[in-house]
Amino acid sequence: MRPSVEVLPDASAIDRTARALMQREQVQGLALAVIDNGAVVHVAAYGIRNIAGDPLTTETVMYGASLTKTAFAYMVMQLVDEGRLDLDVSIAELLPRPLPAYDDYHDLRNDDRWRALTLRILLTHTTGFANFRWLEDDGRLRFHYEPGARYGYSGEGFYIAQLVLEEALGLDVGFEMQTRVFDRFDMTRTSMQWRPDFRPNLADGFRSDGTPEPHDERSSVSAAGSMDTDIEDQAKLWAGIVQGTGVSPASRTEMMRPQLAITSVHQFPTLVPDTNPANESIGLAAGLGLVIFQDARGEMWFKGGHNDWTGNMVICVEISKRCVVLLSNDVRSERIYPELTRAILGETRMPWTWEYDWYTP
Predict the structure, then answer these.
(1) DSSP of 157-196, one letter per residue?
(2) Residue 243 lies in a domain
(3) Helices 231-243 and 67-81: crossing angle, nearest 10°?
(4) 266-306, pLDDT tens digit by residue?
(5) Which domain holds residue 238?
(6) In a domain, 19, yes or no
(7) Is residue 135 over pLDDT 60?
């Protein structure tokens, strides 16, 4: 492995690299932020936000996708700090009714394993569920392995975590995210649901073949991924997270602590039984709402966000509080993330082949 970059490249070098890589892979739009020592040192946007060719700016509202999950986990840890939640209490003790009594969870009425679910299990993607029930042949929710036994990315787990906050604590998750996270970090163009004032500077998406996709105006709050945002706000969010603003030192440490080793070959598909012993060499593990690995510089952590027309990624070096934040309205952007991240952070042990099943070094 080549030595890591200790001095960040300057802004102009980052911009040149980003534009060149975008041109090579025909990426339509990309927004980027760099954080160093917990401070935002560079924010930029390149390309276009829609098929009309309107420019993508640092204030263009984009889909946050599963970056929402980390922001939600951060909010949960505030509730833990307040003594209102315990990560290791069964949801059966928290919910006022059994989980299968709720309309969305009748499928589990004959499987008591739901009682083993805790917030820690929900936030570490170790529920045993598929990512989403609609991926099942019959569209029904079921356990594929014992809760807490292994990592398997699941938005379903975050749906249940949201239900716990709403039913056990009587909270409005959209309001709590706004006041506890977005307002705290002065994220004025971020919301857990659609706002009409986003429309004048809004990014539509581009699929892998370049086909445009209109922005989904999400009316419902979803802890699994409903956040709309822009790169300036995301820079503030991740700077706040690396600084630990708004949570106790113990809670921030808990978020970034390896909770369970990840043994799967790839993150997706989630239920493939194949394992990769090489994961152990980098200490690949689940944190709370993010993934952790060990680099030559010490601990690093990351979180992606993806759908067929969105590619987002945040990667952070813990010791230096140095991060690169990437938002794109073009899924082809993921093709350039390994090289772009390398140009900014230097050589790392980032498990790109685990994150993207198509990637080969």
Answers:
(1) HHHHHHHHHHHHS---HHHHHIIIIITTTT-TT-BSS--G
(2) yes
(3) 40
(4) 999 999 999 999 999 999 999 999 999 999 999 999 999 99
(5) 11-65+194-355
(6) yes
(7) yes
